[in-house]
Amino acid sequence: MSLLCVGVKKAKLDGPQEKFNTYVTLKVQNVKSTTIAVRGNLPCWEQDFMFEINRLDLGLTVEMWNKGLIWDTMVGTVWIPLSSIRQSNEEGPGEWLTLDSQVIMADSEICGTKDPTLHLVLLDTRFELPL
């Protein structure tokens, strides 16, 4: 069992600031967590999440959504293979990731993303080292 720590820091969104009221969802192993919604094209969340992971062959799905009056629309998504996430007990500066507009599916599981957007999200992902 591994402890995955994900820090959702901030984003740089392409478009006028009044167009955005965004939040981020994180999905891994049928568990979903969501940030609060933040207005503007430079949203800052600084929210940390932890997940217990027992399958390192899966991935972390990150989705950014724009809150609407009736329904929310997806801004972009990125899929991070768990095997690529560093192991550390220290928070890092994070990594700017480009959000894509499409997911790639295989056997009804997400296995990647494609078609980059002009939107970026800053995430700090790491596995806690065992004591």
From TrEMBL:
InterPro entries per record: C2_dom (IPR000008), C2_domain_sf (IPR035892), Unc-13 (IPR027080)
Superkingdom, taxonomy of origin: Eukaryota
C2 domain mapped to chain residues: 1-97
Pfam families: C2
Matching SUPFAM superfamilies: C2 domain (Calcium/lipid-binding domain, CaLB)
Name the record gives this protein: Protein unc-13 A
